[in-house]
Amino acid sequence: MSAITVEPVNSLKAELGALLGNVDLDNLSDADFDVIRNALYNHNVICIKNQGNLTPKAQAELTRRFDPKALSYGHGKTIDAKRSILHPDLKTVPHQPEVQIIGNGFVAEYEGLKNITLKHPHHRSFHKTVIPEDQDLDYTRFYRWHIDAALYGKLYPPLVTSLLAVKVPAGRIQTLLYDDNSGDELQVPLGTTAFASGYTMFARLSPEQKEFVLGSKIEYAPHPYVWISTAKSRPDGLGIVSEDKEVSIDDLPEIERESDIQILPMAWQNPVTGKFALQIHPSVVRKIHLHDGRIIDDLKEVRDIVHGLQRPGIAPELVYAFDWKEGDLVLFNNHGVIHSVVGAFGLDEVRLFRQCNLAGSHPPLGPSAVLA
Ligand SMILES: [Fe+2]
Question: From the CA of 235, how far away is ligand 1's center (Å)?
């Protein structure tokens, strides 16, 4: 028996968000872990409060418990590449390489790192159009909707990501603009992490779209985060504008094995509920492999199809904008939600988070594995 309590936090979006109580991570029984795992796969984003003293080692061990055969950090060593768009955003904890430091501002010392300057990703560095400078404190955007995944080589998408809020600057509210002619906007706490459910995204598709999604696979670009380093995003953060600005394949690092290019199902199955999530990293899609063997390789067409499938699922009423407090430990189902950094901090607003995920020990469970 476990004493852990699970309380859904979004009455209209029960599958996004739950608060767990009575959790003692230093003494976690198998029954306790079963409750946590079930909560994760039913609510997809779960929070345990007051975990500011959790060590990086304990964070990595908890994260590994969801996938005991997982070994290395989710991106392996691929973020070391200076041209990778992820390179500036992540600093590795020297004594616990599965754990990364992210945040904003100057930190004199933390976990063996000295005099580090963290930079909260800002849409100005990634979007084709930007919010004017003089409105930057009041308005913001989704920076980049994504799955935490290398999407290349032998590194399968991590099952679970954990995020610990060590330091959170005093909050204010920003208005998030979609800026896509929809008029959509959303009030968000400063520096929120936005989550959208892939299950809702899938459930709301038409019968024809569902059939298409269940039968199709996405081919991701080789060295995906170098490939898009010269390209720019749509204003809703949901994929790239097609204007032929990607790094040409010849200028990418060598592709050692053709099999390093990842081709993954569009729909990933939840191991507990059995539901399918529409689960695509929209920025780094390159081709769509259809059920009958044909391949759509026109990049603009591929992106437009993916955007058409995903955009309804990030409507303002479907987004869970997490309101961070210091000590919050959030675990999310990285095979069932997409998420985005949000917000613009001032230089003096210091924020420090620890992120951990591990390359999956197996590929996501797709429809063919289920139907076979
Ligand atoms: Fe992420």
Answer: 18
pLDDT of residue 370: 47
Q: How far is the CA of 75 from the centre of ligand 1 (A)?
A: 11
Q: How many helices (H) and strands (E) does the chain have?
A: 7, 21
Asked if residue 7 is part of any domain, the answer here is no
Q: Does 2 reside within a domain? A: no
In a domain, 111, yes or no: yes
**Interval between CA 3 and ligand 1 midpoint (Å):** 31
Q: How many domains does the chain have?
A: 1
Q: Is residue 6 domain-resident?
A: no
Indicate if the pLDDT at residue 366 is higher than 90: yes
Among residues 108, 156, 65, the alpha carbon closest in space to that of 362 is found at 156
- Identify the band that residue 143 occupies on the pLDDT scale cut at 50, 70 and 90: very high
CA of 240 to the centre of ligand 1 (A): 17
% of residues, the chain, pLDDT over 70: 98
Residues facing residue 146 across a β-bridge: 339
Domain with 296, as residue range(s), is: 12-360
Q: Is 106 helix (H, G, I), strand (E, B) or coil?
A: strand
Return the structure tokens found at 98: 């599965």
CATH code of the domain containing 71: 3.60.130.10
- Mean pLDDT over all residues of the chain? 94
Closest CA relative to residue 363, chosen from 225, 238, 259:
259
Give yes or no for a contact between 79 and 153, defined as CB atoms under 8 angstroms apart: no
Q: How far is the CA of 193 from the centre of ligand 1 (A)?
A: 9
**Res. 371: pLDDT tops 50:** no
CA–CA separation, 99 vs 82, rounded Å?
Answer: 19
Q: What pTM, to 2 d.p., does this model score?
A: 0.96
Residues with CB under 5 A from ligand 1 (ion): 148
